[in-house]
Amino acid sequence: MARSSYIFTSESVSEGHPDKVCDRISDAILDAFLTQEPEARVACETFATTNRVVIGGEVGLSDQSKLTEYMGKVDAITRSCIKDIGYEQDKFHHETVEITNLLHEQSAHIAQGVDAADNKDEGAGDQGIMFGYATNETQELMPAPIQYSHAILRRLAEVRKSGQEPTLRPDAKSQLSVRYENGKPVGVTSIVLSTQHADEAQTSRDIRDIVEPYIREVLPDGWISDATEWWVNPTGTFVIGGPDGDAGLTGRKIIVDTYGGAAPHGGGAFSGKDPTKVDRSAAYAARYLAKNIVAAGLAEKCTLQLSYAIGVSKPLSIYVDTFGTGEVPAELIEKAVAQCMDLTPRGIRQHLGLNRPIYQRTSAYGHFGRAPEADGGFSWEQLDLVDALKKAI
């Protein structure tokens, strides 16, 4: 029997965290290629350290002769990302950072497994397993610990960028330990917040005085009590931050990107990958399906797994677990899922409109639990499959 009373912890990191700087650059470059060619194949990796950014990976275009032309924009895209995040440190500044661009043409052997041919549909860009998850414990149908960890850092970024809190700097991490009773979140037992700041004379107490009002603003009423433990900049001074303080790399924050450890992750990262790569697109589809299953009232929470083989179009398996909360057997939901959505790589891209430059915005504060946007951003958060799922059961 599942536990109903417990404490669960999740963390988030800000857009200025070194790994998230790299995710942002990789996704911005992806968006630039998709703007030029919606069917572009991109696998872009970024590494950042003191005064340096290195970008590598593969790009496939219908006309590879255009690759050199498009590559000329990478430097400006990278500097724009770093500037928007807010880095103007002596040893990591958008104007002076050294950028090395090592992007090159996609492997023909990978392309032959993915490209559609006369006798077969387009295949998956790689083998792998992808998970989606949803739970009715928040209005976004996300686990509360990760949802509110993101919300804290997003709010602090807003007041930093607006100038309302001029001594905050881009690099930050949050962590919430949430208390559950009868399976529902009811309070926070501890709050951990480490944020880069401007002045070495600022103490942990000074930083808490700055951030506490915003944290209280974000968390639900009554969740913070006198017993809640606060750990704000617990190591003291945090002036040296970002890639100058610690190297960053694309794809290292996969649990932050998904469900904060409350659900499985298939192993593949998202940022920098075009949507032919099921690491990304099928994970989005799995979230979309799990969210619509819960929204349809078929379960209170749901994990959905998809699996693929490189060059094979249809998923090898569909698995659903409703943790004993399902209104119907899980195998009926699995059949309904297959009936309601084409889960081939092309079917996913068409259903969710993924061949658009919508990825840079996903690079921080989670890929899930976000509001769908008018231009197709976060389309996998829509609840437009509810009626179809109900009819299919």
Describe what you observe in this structure.
- The chain has 393 residues and is an alpha+beta fold.
- Helix content is 32%, strand content 24%.
- It has helices at 18-36, 67-71, 74-85, 108-114, 144-162, 204-218, 254-257, 278-295, 330-340, 345-352, 386-392, and strands at 6-13, 41-49, 52-60, 88-89, 92-93, 98-105, 128-135, 168-181, 184-197, 229-232, 248-249, 301-308, 317-321.
- A 4-stranded mixed sheet has the order 1-8-9-10. A 4-stranded mixed sheet has the order 6-3-2-11, covered by helices on one side. A 3-stranded antiparallel sheet has the order 7-12-13.
- A hairpin with a 2-residue loop joins strand 2 (41-49) and strand 3.
- The chain is flat and about 60 Å long.
Shape: flat
Note the gap between the termini.
Answer: 26 Å
Major sheet characteristics: 4 strands, mixed
- What's the tally of helices? 11
Average pLDDT value? Answer: 94
- Overall structural class, as computed from helix and strand content, comes to alpha+beta
Low-confidence stretches: none
% residues in beta strands: 15-25%
From the alpha carbons, calculate the radius of gyration and give it in angstroms: 22 Å
| Tally of strands | 13
In the sheet with the most strands, the strands line up as 1-8-9-10
Query: How much helical structure, as a percent, in the residues?
Result: 25-40%
**Order of secondary-structure elements:** EHEEHHEEEHEHEEHEEHHEEHHH
